[in-house]
Amino acid sequence: MIGGDATGMSAASQARRLKDPDELEIVAFERGHFTSYSACGIPYWVGGDVPERDQLIARTPEEHRARGIDLRLRTEVTEIDVAERRVRARDVDSGAESWTSYDKLVIATGARPIRPDMPGADAPGVHGVQTLDDGQALIDTLARTRGRRAVVVGAGYIGVEMAEALINRGYEVTVVNRGREPMSTLDPDMGRLVHEAMEGLGITMVNDAQVTKILTGADGRARAVATDDAEYPADVVVLGIGVRPETTLAARAGLPLGAHGGLLTDLSMRVRGHAGIWSGGDCVEVLDLVSGQERHIALGTHANKHGQIIGTNAGGGYATFPGVVGTAVSKVCDLEIARTGLREKDARRAGLQFTSVTIESTSRAGYYPGTNPMTVKMLAERRTGRLLGVQIVGREGAGKRVDIAAVALTARMTVEQMTALDLGYAPPFSPVWDPVLVAARKAARAVEQHP
Amino acid sequence: MIGGDATGMSAASQARRLKDPDELEIVAFERGHFTSYSACGIPYWVGGDVPERDQLIARTPEEHRARGIDLRLRTEVTEIDVAERRVRARDVDSGAESWTSYDKLVIATGARPIRPDMPGADAPGVHGVQTLDDGQALIDTLARTRGRRAVVVGAGYIGVEMAEALINRGYEVTVVNRGREPMSTLDPDMGRLVHEAMEGLGITMVNDAQVTKILTGADGRARAVATDDAEYPADVVVLGIGVRPETTLAARAGLPLGAHGGLLTDLSMRVRGHAGIWSGGDCVEVLDLVSGQERHIALGTHANKHGQIIGTNAGGGYATFPGVVGTAVSKVCDLEIARTGLREKDARRAGLQFTSVTIESTSRAGYYPGTNPMTVKMLAERRTGRLLGVQIVGREGAGKRVDIAAVALTARMTVEQMTALDLGYAPPFSPVWDPVLVAARKAARAVEQHP
Predict the structure, then answer these.
(1) Domain count, chain B
(2) Is this model's pTM higher than 0.80 or not?
(3) CATH code: domain of residue B409
(4) Is B319 part of any domain?
(5) Do both B394 and B408 map to the same domain?
(6) What is the per-residue pLDDT across B328-383, written as a single tens digit (0 to 9) for each?
(7) Which residues of chain B make contact with A368, given a CB cutoff of 8 A?
(8) What CA–CA distances, in Å, run from A7 to A77, A247, A304, B249, B266?
(9) Is B432–A300 a contact, with Cβ atoms under 8 angstroms apart?
């Protein structure tokens, strides 16, 4: 196993369930200090919702070792020799290198954050939030920082979650975003709702802005984020620009990479054309079941599933991963943001013609206390009426409704079929027509009127 | 239209959207005072969560009339003459009767509450909660009642919701239940969790108890509920024993009824064998897509869908209702209870062999604040692995997760297919494996081990 986080250690654990140590020796190389942790939880640790770092660790190195996994921490794999079936690993602290041969190899090298190549990006006070070490460094900086102004660069999931974390710690937060609206995983009309809600939460949102440099003070520390037009004073800067597959090793070994830079696998998560080598998690591309094309999605839930599949196959069993529909859910304070399937531009890029509708509804019966408004956007293919995507923005009760659409996409349902879905109804849980059904009805009419 | 609630008036509204008054005359007979109200909301009105009765009314008689619907309130249809295509209606107040002929007929007579045939069942202080008039009468009684002891007869949805309502009004509540555990729409092992939680809420739960009579005092008012073994003092008694299809008129007219006493329709909601007569809502039986057999389910969400389908067809369009999977969700205070598909005994009755698993998980990531435990039970068919049913008991975030299973049942997914579902994940919304996926994994393993 190259990499000791979600995919690598899930695979190791699952393979160990199927094969005893005398049947299968498992060696896992991890260059960091930790295994099996929830990177997705880092914003909540930084924000104080999760008090202790160790709460984010699902399984410690000791637990893995107790199950007969030879885990080598602080050990970085520096080369994969596919022809000779061996990997070269380096002890990060001593620098010592050695080769280890394998019968089966799992590449779970994850993703690396996009670090903009600009002046000041490495200055003290500028932080990424990808690893537990990153999170600890940011928390240490926040503890030392006297000022209360934070700038977050990027307005995707990590950006908005970090905006919430910093608000929760009492910072004045400015989010600087390259796109037209925050959350570019939504269509801009839905991103606009996020924009407005974030401003309502007291976050300053700067869109259409390309960060050109981080300005530093006399002490060398970050003091402001600069764009072409303006400067935004910052006592701390958080980079949340997204990630790319970490496939440097794989590329050097001649393994097949896709258009997004991720490893290409088959349905059993085997690297294409390479029996005995599997890969999964943030370093692979996944099949999007809606568009039929590969995408790169860095998300813990896929990484864990991939680990299960790989561990089963490497352990002599059989399992496949059919692909994804692109579901994601997030929140900024009490604003819930969810999406699944294709955005308008994804659908166009995939050659699909579609109709798109947007409706307003509520999380509970209109008369029930605590009902919250929500906006649901739905895309359906012309002629066939097949569901293509759903985006939801609302308050409590909005986000997880996207699961209804995620299952419907997986089943390739039409919006007409969705209008008859037997969803849970009672006044504290839903209006008599669930918001997703209201959207499906409108989409079905739109398909009928403009086939 | 015979009946002016969800099905009748949805059908009327939808037909009116498709046909102008000069093309289609619509007459709706309703024997009560109200139209288009949420009977499901009555417990929350009684409990005080919904302050005003009129909040439960989706559309008033005046609004319907303004749209060109000839609505005749307090007018009861007493006979359907299928051969002559006419109905006889009686003015409830004056007793005057007259015949009205029709080209198209919609029977939306709903359900009637089961009123036990026992001494005292009609005494003052004994209340059903099916109609707005029932709800008002109960509220009036509660306002006049000095004692604070309430007995609820029945522990299904209405029973547990009324228990919550009476707790919220400060009553000491005893629920007397014929079954082994409350919520007989769940398997008893899941009902047991509801039982324990209700006791934790301070509700006294009496199971395996058949009510034999309501004891009355010298003033003729209810003073206790008696079973074979015991007496439960009561200042107010609420009957929540369930409902039966109200098909007296249809039966007399010779229309086809099913094993549960509901009208039988085809997929276009036409009464079988009768062109020009449709029926829907609480007075029909619906096709259960999981068992392939008819069931009776009184639920507003089906009634509204049926109304849409009927209105479309009666208005000259085309729509069908494919059937249900049996989804229901409810709550008692902060306890959420949900089910979809078949219980163990339903599956057995349908000739299906199955494996059943139960798992414990949480609503959010284990480390995220506000995470709540939930129990998920899942049934899968032997050999095929097809999902047969899901039951969920938990706190906030549990109930609507049943929708995932509802869509999967509709799509006839296997539990193995479900393990790969791309559900929304972020720490505030779900563990990295959603509880439904955890159950699906366990069920898939069980099917594999005992095919």
Answers:
(1) 3
(2) yes
(3) 3.50.50.60
(4) no
(5) yes
(6) 999 999 999 999 999 999 999 999 999 999 999 999 999 999 999 999 999 999 99
(7) 41, 44, 49-50
(8) 16, 15, 5, 63, 50
(9) yes
